[in-house]
TrEMBL record:
Stated family: In the C-terminal section; belongs to the protein kinase superfamily. Ser/Thr protein kinase family.
Transmembrane residue ranges: 290-311
Molecular function as annotated in GO: ATP binding; carbohydrate binding; protein serine/threonine kinase activity
Source organism of this protein record: Coptis chinensis
Protein name listed in UniProt: non-specific serine/threonine protein kinase
Length: 600
C-alpha cells in the first residue's frame, strides 16, 4: 500500500512540474510570482495593474520562467502555443484614452530602452523595426499613430519586431461563421474583454480573437495571419504584457491569464476573477432608501421621456459623416462642446487672430483638458478642400514640441436650416437671402437661417439659372431676346433647344440630363404662380432624382411671360441690383466663370 501511495505522489508531482514547464493558469494574480517593472503592480484584490494615472511611463509583467518555443529534435521549427486573458482599459475620462496593451513574446523580461506613449513600452526610435529584437506582440491599440500606419484609434494588430503591424483590424467580434455579422467593440469602454491568441506550428498560422467577457469564443478569429515565426522566435522566450501611458491618464488591467505550449490553454474560471475598482465616487443616500417606492416610478417615467427625446433629437439633428472623415483618424467634436469649452467664444478667451480665423482658449467639458480652438471665419478664403487638407495633415503629425490635434468640428447647419424652415416648422417660412451673414445659432446650437420672409423661391430659381447658364439674371448689353435670363431660357425650352442656354465656358463637360434637370427646375422655381413652385423638400428630391420632374408644359409656361407682373421678380431685382451697382454689375464676369476661376 505504501509503495503505491509513493508512486501516486511522484506521478502527481511530475504532472504539476510538467504543467509548470509548459503552461500556467492564473484566475487572478494573488500570490502569483510574476516579474514586474515600471508601474506594474499586483493589487490586494489580485488584479494585475500595468499602469496607473501617471503620465509618460511604462509597465511590464512577465512570467518568471522562459518557455521552450522550438522543437530541438526536428528542424527547429516553432511549436504551437495558445493563450487567453481578460483585460480592461479604464481611462480617467470616458471620451479620450491613453495608449493600449500588448501581449508580448520576447527573449528577455527586461525591455531596456523602451519608450512610453505610442511605443507601448516595447521599442524606441532606434530599435523599432530591428530584426534583432526577436519580439512578437499582439497590440490592443487605442491611439491613432500615422507614423506606424495605424488604421484608427481602436484596433487590434500583430507586430513582428515593429510597431507597424503586419496585419490589423478594427476591434470587433463575429456573431457566426459567415463573417458577415459582427459587433464593434470599444477598447476604452472600461468593460472587461477576453482575448484568445493561438499559433498552429504545423500550419504556421497565428489567430487572434476578441469578445466581451462571458460570451463564448467567436467561431471566426478577428485576425488570421499565415507566417512562419521560426525566424523571429528563439529557442527560449518569455511571455508577458507591456503597456504605456502618454499625456492622457489611463489604467490598464489584466484580470486573468492562461498559457500553454503545444496545446490548448486552460479555460479561465471567470467567477474567480477579481473585480475592477469602482470608477467615480460612491453614492450613498438615506433619503433615496426611504423614498425608493416613490422615486422608482418617477425615475422610470423620466428615463423613458428622456430616451424618447434623445432618440428623436438625434434623428432630427444627426450629422452626416463623409468618407474622408472616417479615414482621417481624427475625432469629431460637436459644436455645442466647443461652444461650452470656449465660454461662447468670448473675447476674453481669445488667444490670437490668424489669416483664416481666430484661436480661442478652452476647456473640454467632459475631460477638462485645456485646448486651443481655431474658429474659421466667414471672411476666410479657406474652403472645404483646405479644411480637409489641414485636418488630415495636422492629424498625422506627432512630435513632443507640436500641439496634438485632438479633433475638429464641422456642421451641416445651413442646409438643415433650409429644410427646417420650409418643412419641419409649424409655420411655412421661405428664406429670401441665403448668405453667410444670415446663418444664426439657436438655443440648441444648431445652424438656423435668419432674415427670412414668406416669398423667395424666385430668387432660388434665379440662382439655379445663373449657375447653369453662366449669366446674370439681367444682361442689359445682350440682345433683346437674351436681356432677361429666365425669359430667354423659357423661349429656348419652348423651341426644344433649352441646352443652348448652358454656360458656353463649360463646353460639353457636363451630363446632359443633369444640366436639363437644373435648367427646368430653375424655371419651375421661377413660375409666375407661387402655388406652382415646388417646396424645398421637393427641390431636394428632384435634384437627388428620388422623384422625376414632370414636363414643364403641364405647368402652363409661356415664353416671355414669367417676369410679366410676376410676384417676387421686382423685389428680387431691387434687392439684388441697386441702381448704384448696375454699372459695376454690367462689367462683372458670370457666375460660372467665377466658380471656375476659384476652383469651385
Amino acid at each position: 500500500m505504501f509503495p503505491r501511495f509513493v508512486w501516486l505522489f511522484f506521478l502527481a508531482s511530475s504532472i504539476a512540474t510538467a504543467l509548470e514547464d509548459h503552461g500556467f493558469n492564473y484566475n487572478g494574480f494573488k500570490n502569483a510570482n510574476l516579474s514586474l517593472d515600471g508601474l506594474a503592480v499586483i493589487t490586494g484584490s489580485g488584479l494585475l495593474r500595468l499602469t496607473n494615472n501617471t503620465k509618460q511611463m511604462t509597465g511590464h509583467a512577465f512570467h518568471p520562467k522562459p518557455f521552450q518555443f522550438k522543437n530541438l529534435s526536428s528542424n527547429g521549427s516553432t511549436l504551437s502555443f495558445s493563450t487567453t486573458f481578460v483585460f480592461a482599459i479604464v481611462p480617467k475620462y470616458s471620451d479620450v484614452s491613453g495608449h493600449g496593451i500588448s501581449f508580448v513574446i520576447a527573449p528577455s523580461r527586461s525591455l531596456t530602452g523602451a519608450l512610453p506613449s505610442q511605443y507601448l513600452g516595447l521599442f524606441n526610435e532606434t530599435s523599432n523595426g530591428n530584426p534583432s529584437n526577436h519580439v512578437v506582440a499582439v497590440e490592443l491599440d487605442t491611439i491613432y499613430s500615422s507614423e506606424f500606419g495605424d488604421i484608427n484609434d481602436n484596433h487590434v494588430g500583430i507586430d513582428l519586431n515593429n510597431l507597424r503591424s503586419a496585419i490589423s483590424a478594427p476591434a470587433k467580434y463575429y456573431l457566426d461563421r459567415t463573417g458577415d455579422n459582427y459587433k464593434n467593440l470599444s477598447l476604452i469602454s472600461g468593460q472587461q474583454k477576453q482575448v484568445w491568441i493561438e499559433y498552429d506550428g504545423l500550419e504556421k498560422k497565428l489567430n487572434v480573437t476578441i469578445a466581451p467577457i462571458k460570451l463564448p469564443k467567436p467561431q471566426i478569429p478577428l485576425l488570421s495571419f499565415s507566417h512562419n515565426l521560426s525566424s523571429i522566435i528563439l529557442d527560449s522566450m518569455y511571455v508577458g504584457f507591456s503597456s504605456s501611458t502618454g499625456t492622457i491618464l489611463t489604467s490598464h488591467y489584466i484580470l486573468g491569464w492562461s498559457f500553454q505550449m503545444n496545446g490548448q490553454a486552460q479555460e479561465l474560471d471567470l467567477s474567480r476573477l477579481p473585480k475592477l475598482p469602482r470608477v467615480g465616487p460612491k453614492k450613498q443616500s438615506k433619503a433615496l432608501t426611504i423614498g425608493l417606492p416613490i422615486i422608482i416610478p418617477v425615475f422610470v417615467a423620466t428615463i423613458i421621456s428622456i430616451t424618447f427625446f434623445v432618440i428623436r433629437r438625434k434623428r432630427k439633428y444627426a450629422e452626416l459623416f463623409e468618407d474622408w472623415e472616417l479615414s482621417s483618424g481624427s475625432h469629431r467634436f460637436s459644436y455645442k462642446d466647443l461652444y461650452i469649452a470656449t465660454k461662447g467664444f468670448r473675447d476674453k478667451e481669445l488667444l490670437g487672430i490668424g489669416g483664416f480665423g481666430r484661436v480661442y482658449k478652452g476647456v473640454l467639458p467632459s475631460s477638462k483638458i485645456e485646448v486651443a480652438v481655431k474658429r474659421v471665419s466667414h471672411e476666410s478664403k479657406q474652403g472645404i478642400k483646405e479644411f480637409i487638407a489641414e485636418i488630415v495633415s495636422i492629424g498625422q503629425l506627432r512630435h513632443r514640441n507640436l500641439v496634438q490635434l485632438l479633433g475638429y468640428c464641422r456642421r451641416k447647419g445651413v442646409a438643415s436650416g433650409l429644410v427646417y424652415l420650409h418643412e419641419e416648422w409649424e409655420q411655412v417660412v421661405i428664406h429670401r437671402d441665403v448668405k453667410a451673414s444670415n446663418v444664426l445659432i439657436d438655443g440648441e446650437f444648431n445652424g438656423r437661417l435668419g432674415n427670412h420672409e414668406h416669398r423667395c423661391f424666385f430668387a432660388f430659381g434665379a440662382v439655379l439659372l445663373e449657375v447653369a447658364c453662366g449669366r446674370r439674371p439681367i444682361e442689359l448689353r445682350a440682345s433683346d431676346a437674351k436681356t432677361i435670363l429666365v425669359d430667354w431660357v423659357v423661349s429656348c425650352w419652348s423651341r426644344g433647344t433649352i441646352l443652348e442656354t448652358a454656360d458656353p465656358n463649360l463646353g460639353s463637360d457636363y451630363i446632359t440630363e443633369e444640366m436639363e434637370l437644373v435648367l427646368k427646375l430653375g424655371l419651375l422655381c421661377s413660375h409666375s404662380v407661387p402655388a406652382a413652385r415646388p417646396s424645398m423638400r421637393q427641390v431636394v428630391q428632384f435634384l437627388n432624382k428620388d422623384v422625376p420632374l414632370l414636363e414643364l408644359s403641364s405647368f402652363g409656361f409661356i415664353a416671355g411671360s414669367l417676369t410679366s407682373g410676376q410676384e417676387g421678380f421686382d423685389e428680387f431685382v431691387s434687392s439684388s441690383y441697386p441702381s448704384s451697382d448696375l454699372i459695376n454689375y454690367l462689367g462683372s464676369s458670370s457666375v460660372a466663370e467665377s466658380l471656375l476661376s476659384s476652383g469651385g
